[in-house]
Amino acid sequence: MNAGYYDLHIDQGATFRLLFTWKDSEGEPVDLSGCEARMQMRYIHPDDLVLSLSTGDGDIVLGGTAGTVELKLEPERTAPLTQLTGAYDLEIVYQGGDIVRLLQGRWFISREVTR
Predict the structure, then answer these.
(1) Among 26, 80, 83, 100, which residue is least crowded by beta carbons within 10 Å?
(2) pLDDT in tens, 56-78
(3) Which domain of life does the UniProt lineage start with (predicted)?
């Protein structure tokens, strides 16, 4: 399976949420029970880590048999984002060790005016 491509548009200083359902080729939700997820956001040049999200930190919530994936960043995590763009990918890690890159793309920051 190839990773899906999706660009993230994040408002600086605001809560960011993304909720979606991973479905198989027949349109059925993929069972994520027992899985973990991890995601890194990086600047493109230089390749510096900007944010790291995971199920362990509570930034990513997996919905088990419902196949849902929720990403959440609190305002204090989006406020320091000053460079306007970068790249990310989101991986699902199965209990047996298999890793699936589910999503990848670019992220874009809309700068906060009201502070």
Answers:
(1) 26
(2) 999 999 999 999 999 999 999 99
(3) Bacteria
